[in-house]
Amino acid sequence: MRKITAALALAGILSVGVATPAFSGERPERSEVVTGTAARVRIVDFAFRPRRIEVPRGTRVTWKNRGGVGHTTTSRTGLWDSGTLAPGDTFSRVFRSRGTFRYACSIHPDMRGKVVVT
Questions:
Q1: 3-class secondary-structure state, position 52
Q2: Looking at the DSSP assignment, which residues form a beta bridge with residue 114?
Q3: Cα 51 to Cα 42: distance, rounded to the nearest angstrom
Q4: Residues 83-100 as b or e (16 or more Cβ within 10 Å = b)
Q5: Percentages of the chain per state (helix, strand, coil), in multiples of 5
Q6: Nearest by Cα to 50 from 70, 68, 67, 32
Q7: I need a labelling partner for 52 at 20 to 30 A (CA). Which of 27, 43, 64, 69 fits?
Q8: Edge-to-edge strands of the sheet including 31-33?
Q9: What is the model's pLDDT at position 18?
């Protein structure tokens, strides 16, 4: 009986160990709250990660393209435009005013993000 219980327990552990990484890789980070003066947003798999970031006023937000194709970070109201970021490139902006700043990739308009400055 002990061998069967041990085998079932081991199988359960292995099952969880295999399933968890596959599931977690499918769900991009949706939101993040930053308390320091620097924050980062990764551009991966045609998505901004996190999609929404909340930062204090005066924070420098840096976007880094970790994908395989070019992307932009472009304000919907014309406040900034990174130009095309090749894989590995970065773009930074300091947010000095409170508010909600929506942006997208001008090359792939379905890629959207938001910076909330408190």
A1: strand
A2: 52, 102
A3: 9
A4: eebeeeeebebebeeeee
A5: 20, 40, 40
A6: 32
A7: 69
A8: 31-33, 52-55, 112-117, 99-104, 74-75
A9: 29
Residue bearing tokens 């932009």: 72
Task: Confirm if 51 and 114 have CB atoms less than 8 A apart.
Answer: yes
Residue identified by tokens 């909340």 is 54
Beta bridge partners of residue 71, listed in sequence order: 85
Place of tokens 């304000």: 75
Q: Which pLDDT does position 29 carry in this prediction? A: 64
Q: Is the dihedral of CA 64, 66, 69, 75 positive or negative?
A: negative
Reading the chain (118 residues) residue by residue, the pLDDT tens digits are 444 444 434 334 323 322 223 333 445 568 888 877 899 999 998 999 999 999 999 999 999 999 999 999 999 999 999 999 999 999 999 999 999 999 999 999 999 999 999 9
